[in-house]
Design brief:
Layout (H helix, E strand, L loop, with lengths): L1 E2 L1 E3 L8 E4 L11 E3 L6 E4 L8 E4 L5 E3 L1
Parallel strand pairs: 1-4, 3-6
Antiparallel strand pairs: 2-7, 4-5, 6-7
The structure holds zinc ion (ZN).
The site of zinc ion (ZN) has 7 residues, from loops.
Length: about 60
Amino acid sequence: MIELRTFPGLFVGRRTVLQADEAPRDSEGPAYACGACRQELVRADRTFFNDVVVKCRCGEFNQL
Ligand SMILES: [Zn+2]
């Protein structure tokens, strides 16, 4: 499992914020976990993170 980096919501910028519940989990890619609570958030190819940030249920914003 790869841990993501958390960052302040202030810096989301133009990226799309995806809620943890909307994130893909069924892909063949590696699993990524929230950098704060280490819950699994996404299973996807790394290109998925090019313009997306994932907001975990714990409230933290995560990026690769
Ligand atoms: Zn979390």
